[in-house]
Amino acid sequence: PIPKLEGDAPGCLTRANCRSKGAAPGFKVAILGAAGGIGQPLSMLMKINPLISVLHLYDVVNTPGVTADISHMDTGAVVRGFLGASQLEGALTGMDLVIIPAGVARKPGMTRDDLFNINAGIVKSLSEGVARFCPKALVNIISNPVNSTVPIAAEVFKKAGTYDPKRLLGVTKLDVVRANTFVAEVLGVDPRDVDVPVVGGHAGITILPLLSQVKPPSAFTPKEVEYLTDRIQNGGTEVVEAKAGAGSATLSMAFAAAKFAESCLRALRGDAGIIECAYIDSQVTEIPYFASKVRLGRGGIEEVLPLGPLNDYERESLEKAKKELASSIEKGVAFVKK
Ligand code: NAI
After folding, report:
1. Structure pTM?
2. Active-site residue (options: 19, 106, 112, 202)
3. pLDDT below 70 — which residues of the chain?
4. pLDDT value at position 338?
5. Which of 63, 179, 245, 304 is most deeply buried (CB count within 10 A of its CB)?
6. Which of 113, 142, 202 for a ligand 1 pocket mutation test, highest count of atoms within 8 Å of Cβ?
7. Taking Cα atoms as reference points, which of 90, 71, 85, 75 lies closest to residue 30?
């Protein structure tokens, strides 16, 4: 069942914001890191999503401005802003979906792992908030390094006794979005008609596009495979270098995150056949967290789909990816346990 709006914004003075009576049913979504490069366009895209009735924007800076700005859009969702740790409880209470793009972004020359020292602490403290204030919410983790931040969130939830592996998803959708775009360019077709499964993780060689399983079925030359794999794995770096110090992918990431969130909400609503790639607690390989296709439903992840047949190149790449993934996961787990 779709949750109904329960109350008004605290201090709500205008009828426009007071929607407890006759409000359209919908989901409550919080974005943590909403004032950032990803957070702002993502907040805008969520404000136009008709599945959402309440949108909470949380950050440690600038949320009053972003909230005022976005709240003027004449769409259904009610927007409320929350600033700083003392308002995290208000931001999270009652949420169905929490999306986390909080943290610092890469600069040229940096790997996603270089972000670990700052972002690990941010994801840990925000996950503690989720465990306390909305332990049943679905959580989408965007903050890098995703390969480590998802295990960090899981460890926090385990400590708090709230861990449900079906409800924690690392967002790797941008890798799929990029793969669809680049493969469509090579095939000379519309990217909306292309579906490339991308498995493994979300950093360098852990990003494994399964080009043998592309839909529509397509054959690639070894040169095309090499070009496509390299471009998909390094798509993030392509943007970091082009932005030359001004950050990493934000607009395409917001688009990818919004698509992924939409799938999560449609699944929560009870729509059937929602399949996405995501980085999750997994038994698909011996590595404890792994990205692969999952079927989403009312309870979050309802089924982890098998990897399917891999060719020799993909099998070899998988072995290399697994090594790197294992050490990134260990680093995340150790960070919470220490
Ligand atoms: P940004 O620096 O523009 O924005 C980050 C926002 O997080 C800022 O507004 C900052 O104030 C906020 N923040 C910092 N500490 C916080 C805390 N404790 N609580 C709440 N908010 C906090 O960075 P951008 O470009 O938006 O990137 C955000 C993250 O997303 C980075 O870690 C980046 O590496 C990652 N990313 C992930 C991708 C993926 O595919 N999963 C793709 C692109 C970026």
Report:
1. 0.94
2. 202
3. 1-24
4. 86
5. 179
6. 142
7. 90
